[in-house]
Amino acid sequence: MRTPIIAGNWKMHKTVSQAVELCRKLEAALQDSPVEVVVCPPFTALSAAFALGMSKVKLGAQNMYAADKGAYTGEISPVMLKDVGCQYVILGHSERRQYFKEDDEFVAEKAAKAFEYGIKPIICVGESLEQRRAGQTTEIVVTQTKGALAKITPDQISDVVIAYEPIWAIGTGENATGADANEVIGTIRATIAELFGQDKADQVRIQYGGSVKPENIAEFMHQPEIDGALVGGASLSADDFIKIVQYK
Asked: Which residues are part of the catalytic machinery?
């Protein structure tokens, strides 16, 4: 059985004090949840969140650079993330790909580097609206999955989390149906099986992301291939995120 994992990507939101308040609420409310819960605050709030000593809510970062240290102005290394308690890092988010021109090869380098420090990558894949309309969804997600996993070893793959985030559904209020998302995620799992074998693929947790909210989370979580969610806007509200984690 794969343990469900629901992660909140706060993006460029929350001051340090706001992040601490939200983390405290989540930690108090979710102690008995069977779901693995991860929050990914902005870099400025990671130290303060770590200092809370949370036991249920795990910390993740929204990005990292593929080097231990160096002259990379404005970047954050996995050494730094490990130092502030990060157990996960989001890599290859469509906003990183779109605004900062990150490609599959760079995502693969980051994923490999994250594992050097015991940080588990949440690797994002997904198609644009234009690609979807052109019938290219399968081609895009297969290419991105293979590219991002190019440097991952068979021993590491079971600790990778994949997030299928159709770009057209991120922050738009639009979302794939549960059945549509399940089909694409099944394709992603089949791709992992091609690379690492079916037994390994069956261990990989694959999330859905894209306008996930309390009203639709159950539709996704009840699909056989979907193991969790990467939540954007709804993760900024304690009440909404708690409802998502406590889906039925």
From this structure: 93, 165
The whole-number pLDDT of residue 248 equals 83
Q: Which residues contact 229 (CB under 8 A, 6 or more apart)?
A: 6, 7, 207, 208, 209, 212, 217, 220, 221, 244
Task: List the chain domain ranges.
Answer: 5-245
**Beta strand ranges found along 12-132 (DSSP E):** 36-40, 57-61, 86-91, 120-125
CATH match for 5-245 among 3.40.50.2300, 3.30.565.10, 3.30.530.20, 3.20.20.70: 3.20.20.70
Q: Say if pTM beats, i.e. exceeds, 0.90.
A: yes
Amino acid, res. 23? C
Beta-strand pair 5-9/36-40: parallel
In Å, how far are 104, 110, 192, 197, 209 from 143, measured between CA atoms? 8, 17, 11, 18, 19
Confidence of residue 65 (pLDDT cuts 50, 70, 90): very high
Count CB atoms within 10 A of the CB of residue 121.
28
